[in-house]
């Protein structure tokens, strides 16, 4: 089943707002920033489905127009159910000049025998700011399912003026490559990746990296680090034992970066 979500966010003289939206079942988009003190757009993607099923194909298209700022949120943990075949997701984000797009979704819970293939392509113009994250759990740990999914593959690409500047490729196949082996996740059960990329020269990247390292040092029972990119930005990698801890950490990082003076 093909499920479609198209969002366009624009900025007028006063604020960023949802200009256009088109969704098919099970998606729904609602505004959630009514009580925010700023003039940016805050939207939540909701779903009437309990999770992603075998044969599902999600097609997400997001356009953030010139000088608009969008912070997108998810409704709840994303469950990947037991599958006979596979499920796929395609996400494309178009960022016009001076725009910002931040998306820190809830953790993904891949159930036993699930196969999920995802690809995200982000196109950035000048003076843009991007933050996206992903947290992958081991599965339904409290039901005895630890790395019993079949395959999880996510390809993430960022383009600046049609030139590829960042590529992150995660492929997990625990039945072929045990993830708790030495040199992989070892005793950790959850992993998270947060990517921050900007196309402006004014960004104080070293100072931001120091602040994020301070946030990482405050956390207990995790292993994490920050890698600065060759262009303006960095990647945060974290290993842990619980999805909620990593999700809260990434929300705190998002809050820090969202409030950088433009």
What does this structure look like?
By secondary structure, the chain is mainly β. The chain has one domain. It contains 2 helices and 17 strands. An 8-stranded mixed beta sheet has the order 3-4-6-9-12-15-17-16, covered by helices on one side. Helix 1 (205-218) packs antiparallel against helix 2 (243-258). The protein is globular and about 55 Å long. The mean pLDDT is 94.
Q: What characteristics describe this protein?
A:
single chain, 262 residues, mainly beta, eight-stranded mixed beta sheet, seven-stranded mixed beta sheet, 17 strands
SSE layout:
Elements: E1 2-11, E2 16-23, E3 27-31, E4 41-47, E5 57-64, E6 69-74, E7 78-80, E8 87-95, E9 100-103, E10 108-110, E11 115-124, E12 129-136, E13 151-160, E14 163-172, E15 190-198, H1 205-218, E16 223-228, E17 233-240, H2 243-258
In short:
With 262 residues, the chain is mainly β. The chain has helices at residues 205-218, 243-258; strands spanning 2-11, 16-23, 27-31, 41-47, 57-64, 69-74, 78-80, 87-95, 100-103, 108-110, 115-124, 129-136, 151-160, 163-172, 190-198, 223-228, 233-240.
Q: Count of DSSP helices?
A: 2
Low-confidence stretches: none
Could you give the order of the helices and strands? EEEEEEEEEEEEEEEHEEH
State the helicity in percent bands: 10-25%
Distance between the termini: 41 Å
Strand arrangement across the biggest beta sheet: 3-4-6-9-12-15-17-16
Overall pLDDT level: 94
Query: Could you tell me the number of beta strands?
Result: 17
Instruction: Classify the beta-strand content into a percent band.
Output: over 45%
Which term fits the overall shape? globular
- Report the radius of gyration as a whole number of Å: 18 Å
Number of domains: 1
Tell me the major beta sheet: 8 strands, mixed
Helix-strand category: mainly beta
């Amino acid at each position: 089943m093909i499920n479609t979500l198209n969002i366009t966010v624009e900025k007028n003289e006063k604020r960023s707002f949802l200009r256009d939206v088109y969704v098919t079942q099970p998606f729904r988009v609602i505004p959630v920033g009514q009580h925010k003190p700023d003039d940016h757009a805050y939207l939540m993607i909701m779903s009437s489905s309990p999770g992603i099923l075998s044969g599902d194909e999600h097609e997400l298209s997001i356009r953030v127009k010139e000088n608009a700022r969008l912070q997108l949120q998810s409704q709840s943990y994303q469950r990947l159910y037991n599958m006979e075949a596979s499920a796929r997701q395609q996400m494309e984000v178009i960022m016009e000049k001076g725009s910002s797009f931040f998306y820190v979704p809830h953790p993904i819970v891949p159930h036993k025998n699930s196969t999920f293939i995802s690809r995200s392509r982000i196109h950035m113009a000048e003076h843009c700011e991007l933050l996206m994250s992903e947290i992958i759990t081991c599965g339904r740990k409290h039901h005895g399912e630890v790395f019993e999914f079949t395959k999880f593959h996510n390809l993430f690409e960022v383009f600046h003026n049609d030139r590829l500047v960042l590529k992150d490729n995660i492929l997990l196949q625990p039945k072929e490559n045990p993830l708790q082996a030495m040199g992989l996740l070892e005793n950790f059960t959850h992993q998270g990746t947060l990517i921050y990329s900007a196309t402006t020269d004014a960004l104080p990247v070293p100072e931001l990296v120091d602040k994020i390292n301070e946030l990482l040092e405050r956390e207990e029972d995790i292993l994490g680090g920050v890698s600065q990119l060759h262009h303006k930005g960095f990647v945060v990698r974290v290993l842990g034992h619980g999805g909620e801890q990593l999700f809260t950490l990434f929300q705190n990082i998002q809050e820090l970066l969202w409030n950088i003076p433009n």
